[in-house]
Amino acid sequence: MRKTLRENGLTLAFTALLVLALAGQALTGQASYNDAATDAGLPTLSIVEYVTSSQFTVDVAENWQSEYLQFLLYILLTVWLLQKGSPESKPLDSAGRESDKDQKVGVYADQDSPRWAAVGGWRTELFSRSLGLAMGAVFLGSWAAQLVAGRSAYNAEQLQDLQDPLTWSQYLDAPDFWNRTFQNWQSEFLAVGSMVVFSIYLRERGSPESKPVGTADTATGVEG
Fold first, then answer.
1. How far is it, in rounded angstroms, from Cα 89 to Cα 224?
2. How confident is the model over 26-48, as a mean pLDDT?
3. Are 34 and 71 found together in one domain?
4. According to the model, what pLDDT value does residue 78 have?
5. Are residues 13 and 48 in the same domain?
6. Are 127 and 116 in contact (CB under 8 A)?
7. By Cβ atoms counted within 10 A, which residue in 13, 51, 157, 213 is the most buried?
8. Can you tell me the distance from the alpha carbon of 115 to that of 124, in angstroms, rounded to the nearest whole number?
9. In what helix (H) or strand (E) does residue 142 lie, and over which residues does it extend?
10. CA-closest candidate to residue 81, choices 202, 210, 192, 187
């Protein structure tokens, strides 16, 4: 058990933080919703009703899609784009997909390389892009969930105000959908851009996201 905890500590810690954050969002979101419902003379929701509601779902989905978009773009852009001095960048002479030898694929695979890295053909090509494909799939799935839940939540408010509900195409073109989308995207782009620049000049001893403390600011692609 101790070995499992040590070897999977990062995953377990972030899973626990995710559960706690979702629980906190559910409890505070329910309280906020019920306060507004009481003031408007509308029925309140139990915690189970709230976490299965479109309001809770759209709030979760809009955050998830922006996070996965952030990682998708970061994974793809760092293949080709570089930043001198940042450990978040590859070395300045390594832009691009790199050679089979550098990537240890096909005949250059090690004995303990993943099997699909060694077999060649379409399986190696697919495995070579599997991280970006997975991130892209989760992004599109969570964005679709935001669209579905967002339309449902928006139309519920429309009906309460005796307004006509929106069709799928109308909601996809509505300010509410794109406002929810852009307000999350801009924060993710700011956070990633800040990390790239801050890591040039600032250090965090022992972190692989930082250069070693004594490394020159101009060193690129060096991790602690």
1. 14
2. 92
3. no
4. 93
5. yes
6. yes
7. 51
8. 9
9. helix 130-160
10. 192
